[in-house]
């Protein structure tokens, strides 16, 4: 799961990662304000003396884990949406992430929040209403929805830069050329550019791999590595180590590494296509 989350970070450009971090931090601040006001109203209704500063301090401390949980969930779901991760795999990742998040919250209460209040952890846990634990998975689900919305905006931006799903615009100064994506068998990241690879040549295009993922997966490409996508129909053979694919060779003879995440996507793709009935010949 940690590897999957790290690949989620790598699958998004830094600028977009920062936008997600900004959005989730703003959501965290908004929840802090809401929870502070709610607690202040409850204490006033019960006649308990308090100050806003004290409540803000307490709420800030107990909510610290969510500063990491929110962006982790949002980035993971955005990556899943952009890479068209199979539903079962996506749900499994989110459930595992949610369980880990709730466990982290529990540990934080025991080892950080209870000492902050100078109270026994058992007493603090007994005083936390059950509804608070129910809210945790709800907030995780809402954060995943935020990642979905963000991925949708990325897809819309990408669609505005392409004339058609099977073409891509190559810009060089004032000149614009339209490249037929049917000629492309692989795409590789090269810094701020991507290399569009055909059987006999390459074109450099100023874009990130994440910006092209949605368009390319619709055309039968598989994101086998954080830096590479290949056309599934061009796969000639694969090399395996310890039961999983670690490298692919295309019909053109070009080879590409396959990450653990890429191997999962490859297996899911083959399972959902007619070509999956024919096992890939193995190199080892």
- In whole angstroms, how far apart are the ends? 28 Å
What percentage of residues falls in helices of 4 or more residues?
55-70%
Alpha plus pi helix count: 9
- Beta-strand share of residues: 15-25%
E-strand count: 10
Principal-axis shape? elongated
Q: What class, by secondary structure content? A: alpha+beta
Oligomerization category of the chains in this entry: single chain
User: How big is the Rg?
Assistant: 24 Å
Q: In this structure, how is the largest beta sheet organized?
A: 5 strands, antiparallel
Strand arrangement in the largest pleated sheet: 5-4-3-7-6
Mean pLDDT, to the nearest integer, reads 83
Q: Low-confidence parts lasting 5 or more residues at pLDDT below 50?
A: 1-5, 274-279
The number of distinct structural domains comes to: 2
Element pattern in H and E: HHHHHHHEEEEEHEEEEEH
């Amino acid at each position: 799961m940690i590897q999957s989350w790290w690949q989620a970070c790598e699958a998004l450009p830094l600028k977009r990662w920062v936008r997600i971090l900004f959005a989730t931090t703003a959501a965290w601040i908004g929840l802090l304000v809401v929870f502070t006001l709610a607690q202040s109203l409850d204490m006033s209704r019960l006649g308990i003396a308090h100050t806003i500063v004290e409540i803000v301090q307490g709420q800030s401390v107990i909510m610290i884990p969510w500063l990491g949980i929110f962006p982790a969930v949002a980035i993971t779901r955005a990556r899943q949406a952009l890479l068209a991760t199979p539903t079962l795999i996506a749900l499994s990742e989110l459930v595992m992430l949610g369980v880990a998040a709730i466990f982290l919250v529990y540990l934080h209460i025991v080892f950080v929040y209870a000492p902050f209040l100078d109270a026994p952890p058992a007493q603090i846990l007994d005083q936390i209403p059950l509804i608070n634990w129910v809210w945790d998975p709800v907030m995780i689900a809402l954060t995943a929805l935020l990642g979905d919305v963000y991925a949708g905006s990325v897809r819309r931006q990408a669609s505005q830069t392409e004339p058609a799903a099977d073409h891509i615009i190559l810009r060089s100064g004032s000149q614009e050329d339209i490249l037929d994506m049917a000629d492309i068998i692989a795409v590789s990241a090269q810094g701020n550019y991507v290399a569009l690879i055909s059987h006999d040549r390459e074109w450099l295009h100023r874009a990130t791999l994440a910006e092209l993922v949605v368009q390319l997966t619709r055309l039968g490409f598989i994101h086998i590595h954080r830096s590479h996508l290949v056309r599934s129909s061009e796969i000639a053979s694969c090399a395996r180590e310890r039961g999983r694919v670690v490298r692919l060779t295309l019909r053109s003879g070009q080879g590409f590494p396959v990450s653990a995440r890429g191997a999962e996507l490859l297996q899911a793709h083959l399972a959902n296509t007619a070509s999956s009935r024919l096992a890939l010949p193995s190199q080892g």
